[in-house]
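[agent] plan:
  1. take the single chain provided in the ticket
  2. run structure prediction with default settings
  3. attach structure tokens to the ticket
  4. add a short note for the reviewer (M.T.)
[agent] executing step 1
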Amino acid sequence: MFLGFSLFILYTFGYETFYQRLITQMEGVVVSSRDIHSPNNPRYVTEYIVRAPDGREVSYVAGSSDASLPQSMPAGTTVSKRKWHLDYERDGEHVSDFPAALYGLTLGAALAGLIWSIRLWRQQRMQG
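[agent] step 2 finished; step 3 output follows
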């Protein structure tokens, strides 16, 4: 059971949040921003259209998790988020809003739990 919990934490905090934030890449000006509310969910997402420096327009959906860039940025906002970085720039200002220490502690504890579970499982296999 502890093994399953550790794997769940590694997946949700590690892959679904930390890794997704790391691989997000965007540069340009927000052309449109639309908040989308779900009738059955108090959380919402923001759908952006961002015009890149080369003139290409791309869509980006910001959810309510730490994996996303912020919601509800108005049209005209300049955003630059580089791949493999947790921080980004908004209107030329550096923004570091990702709680890296919290995620480091959580992922470290989950990894320790995973290693402990595997060692315990191997000991039990050898004994019986």
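[agent] step 4 note for reviewer: Helices lie at 2-23, 100-127.
[agent] ticket updated
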